[in-house]
Specification:
With 386 residues, the protein is mainly β. The protein has helices at 78-88, 371-375, and strands spanning 28-32, 46-50, 61-70, 129-132, 141-144, 150-157, 164-168, 173-178, 181-188, 191-193, 198-204, 208-216, 224-230, 268-277, 282-285, 296-298, 303-310, 316-320, 325-328, 337-341, 343-346, 351-357, 363-368, 379-384. The chain has two domains: 56-73 and 120-254, Sandwich (Immunoglobulin-like); 258-384, Cupredoxins -  blue copper proteins (Immunoglobulin-like). The chain is built from two helices and 24 strands. The strands form five sheets. A six-stranded mixed sheet has the order 4-3-6-11-8-9, with no helix packed on it. It has a six-stranded mixed sheet with strand order 15-14-17-22-19-20, with no helix packed on it. The longest helix has 11 residues, at 78-88. The chain starts with 27 loop residues before the first strand and ends with a strand.
Length: 386
């Protein structure tokens, strides 16, 4: 029921129907979309909220905010953008002059670990619009509340090629979940969502009208913009200038005890070496471009360690189908799987390690959630063998 054409099932043909039937074992914030070309970038997406019948959090309202980058029918189409990248590659800019031959990816990498990020080259496509729940900044989505109400904001980055830095003017964010899995609450001023990532935050509404902003990192133009209205006051204008304060880092997040993985030595280590060729016309995993890939074999019952090595100056939000993983050393003791996720934003020149249990036999796509990187090759398959 994974819906990946030519891996687990054929595509749903025009004019036909297909019913998905599956068990939702974990509550949280999820979403769904096709894996056919760049249909994702045409708005063919949906939020999927799995509610907890024993929800431990207390809040007055539950609001889902979906961020999306948009060009279809405005400046181009996704298919035209993909064809352009396939033919001409990416605009390398100043990064094209960097000599990376002597550089080795590290745990810190280069990216949003500093307040003034290095390598904010998060995508290849310039978008005229950035949306919140399908609405542009000129006609913003409004979150309605009363002063003092506690809101649960479910944040989903459904963008195809854009990472966003999210904040709410005049408010702190209490981060309570990442990719659907609960974390011990941590207070920050802003957070970055790579493509495909989700965060849940609690916000106590102030008195007035406040900007809800998702700044497209490394890209020009107006941000994705909504309004939190809890009382009177002039409607704020969209602006990129409110970035500041404490920016969330993965290392800040400790998984709640109920979702922590057990301490266990991995039975198998699989490496995903992320590289670029031909000026961005091809994006590779372990030197191969999908579908000319080499599946990564594993066996049921194994504890598997994935090592992501980003040898490029781009963000690569890596998503694993069919499983969730614990980031090794993040929110846990060194060498122990900590923060639970299904998508991890591997920063430029960064090395990240994640453990998961091979408890779901099948053929599972693993890929960069930048839709254009994926379509230009940065995908492979986790393949269960007997």
């Amino acid at each position: 029921m994974d819906g990946v054409p030519d891996v687990t099932a054929p595509s749903v043909a025009p004019g036909t129907l297909f019913d998905y039937q599956f068990i939702a074992p974990d509550p949280g914030t999820y979403w769904f979309h096709p894996h056919v070309g760049v249909q994702l970038d045409t708005g063919l997406i949906g939020a999927l909220i799995v509610e907890d019948p024993n929800e431990p959090l207390r809040y007055d309202d539950d609001v889902t905010l979906v961020f999306d980058d948009w060009l279809d029918g405005v400046t181009s189409t996704p298919d035209q953008a993909l064809a352009n990248l396939s033919e001409n590659g990416m605009d390398m800019g100043s990064m094209g002059d960097m000599d990376m031959s002597s550089m080795e990816p590290t745990a810190e990498g280069m990216g949003v670990s500093r307040r003034q990020p290095l390598g904010e080259d998060t995508g290849d496509v310039t978008y005229p619009l950035h949306l919140v729940n399908g609405r542009p900044a000129a006609d913003p989505f409004v979150v309605k509340a009363r002063p003092g109400q506690r809101l649960r904001l479910r944040l989903i980055n459904a963008g195809s090629d854009t990472a966003y830095e999210f904040s709410v003017g005049g408010h702190q964010l209490s981060v309570v979940a990442s990719d659907g899995f609960p974390v011990e609450p941590v207070a920050v001023d802003s957070l970055v969502l790579g493509m495909g990532e989700r965060f849940d935050v609690l916000v106590e509404a102030g008195d007035g009208a406040f900007p809800v902003v998702a700044v497209p990192l490394g890209k020009p133009g107006e941000p994705a913009f909504a309004v939190l209205r809890a009382g009177s006051g002039e409607t704020p204008k969209p602006a990129r200038s409110q970035r500041g304060g404490r920016l969330l880092q993965y290392r800040d997040l400790v998984p709640e005890e109920s979702v922590r993985m057990s301490k266990r030595q991995p039975d198998r280590t699989l490496t995903m070496d992320l590289t670029m060729e031909d000026g961005g016309r091809a994006w590779l995993i372990n030197g191969k471009r999908f579908p000319d890939h080499e599946p990564l074999d594993l066996r049921p019952g194994e504890r598997v360690r994935l090592e992501f090595i980003n040898r490029t100056m781009m963000f690569h939000p890596m998503h694993v189908h069919g499983h969730t993983f614990g980031l090794v050393g993040y929110g846990a003791a060194p060498g122990v799987p900590g923060l639970r996720k299904d998508t991890v934003n591997v920063l430029p020149m960064q090395r990240l390690t994640a453990d998961f249990d091979a408890d779901n036999p099948g053929q599972w796509l693993t890929h960069c959630h930048n839709a254009y990187h994926g379509e230009l090759g940065m995908m492979t398959v986790l393949s269960y063998v007997r």
